Structures are given as structure tokens and as C-alpha cells.
Amino acid sequence: MSRFLSVASLGVAAGLLLPATPLFSPTAPPVPVPSDAYAPVEDLVLPVEDIIGEVESLDGTRSETKQGTQVTVALTSDVLFALDKWALTGAARKRLQGVAEQVRTEGAGGVVNVRGHTDDQGSDAYNLRLSQRRAQAVEQALRGLLAGAGVTLQAQGYGESRPKLPNIVEGKPVEGNRARNRRVEIVFDARQ
After folding, report:
1. 107 in helix, strand or coil?
2. Helix axes 124-145, 90-106, angle to 10 degrees
């Protein structure tokens, strides 16, 4: 019997909550809209700040971003150098030829910055030295490839201070992120 009462009680409660007539009916006459219900639509103008698109190679070893006229080409260190080394590999030279060609065809001249970066493994001092040496190795290679291009090359190592992605997520190292943080960036201004 208590089950019957509880079902009946629910039915009464539902009847009290629901309106007797439906809220919308296709046969109901239209509701008049007051004349002051309309207002002109003003143009919404919001500032857009720093939209930076990134194009990445399918294998993740090269990416390119453009912010205004500044182009940044990033090559992962794993394709440029052996582990803990700063001597360029044969494959690195081929990749740098492509970057040099891009700087020649798209660049506006001036300063080309070569920035070395590492992941978080090893000491800060070691990573800073390694990133500087790697940036200098890329700078030297580009110097030969960009001879007569009207650019000045500058190399700087940043160690692990400017990661592209977090090295550790939820307390666990992320090897894919670390690999992308080990990179050398070639930064130049594009012609307008």
C-alpha cells in the first residue's frame, strides 16, 4: 500500500509542477511582440591578441610559427645532433640547407637569431652550455649557407628556461614533450 501512495503522491506533485496548457502549441495564436522589444544591433569590436599559428611536420621534427613578420623555424635537436653532442649530423646539414633557402627567399635581411633549447634533464649549467654550443654549431653552418644574403647571425643558448611544452605532466616526465623542447630555433623577419 505504501508503494501505491508514493506513486500517487508523485503524480500529484507532477500535476502541480506542470502547467495545464502547453507552453507552445502550433495551433495557438501568436503572442504579440511589443514595439520596444527591438533595438539596433551595435557592432561588436573586440581586440584580437597574438594569434600564432604553428605548422608542424608529420614526424614532429620541424615546426614553423609566424607572428606578424617574425618567422620561427624550429628543428628538434634529435635530428640535428647525437645525444649530448653539439656536432651537426649529415642529416642536419640537409635540413639547414632548406632553412637557409627559406631565409633567402622569404627573409627581409637583417638579424637572424639562432636559439638553442634543451629539456629539463641534467643540471641547469650543463643544459645552458649545451644549448649555447648547439646554437653556435647551427649558426656556423648557416653562416656558410647564407653567405652574401645580407643577414647577420646571432647565437644564444637558453638551456631549459624556455620549454615549448611542459617536460613533466602530473608528476610524470613526458618524453614526447621533452623531445620537442630539445630544439634549435632560427628566427628571422619576413618581407612584407
Report:
1. strand
2. 60
The DSSP call for residue 192 is -
Cα atoms in the 13 Å half-sphere on the side-chain side of 37: 5
Task: For residue 126, give the C-alpha cell.
Answer: 650543463
Grid cell, residue 151, equals: 643577414
Q: Do 116 and 186 form a contact (C-beta atoms < 8 A)? A: no
Whether residue 137 contacts residue 111, with contact meaning beta carbons closer than 8 Å, is answered with: no
Q: What angle do CA 161, 120, 166 make, to 5 degrees?
A: 75
Farthest-apart Cα atoms in the chain, separation:
98
With residue 124 as reference, give the H or E element that holds it. helix 124-145
pLDDT tens digits, 98-146: 999 999 999 999 999 999 999 999 999 999 999 999 999 999 999 999 9
What pTM, to 2 d.p., does this model score? 0.72
Residue 37 has pLDDT above 90, yes or no: no
Q: What does the DSSP 8-state code read for residue 41?
A: P
Q: CB of 35 within 8 A of CB of 46?
A: no
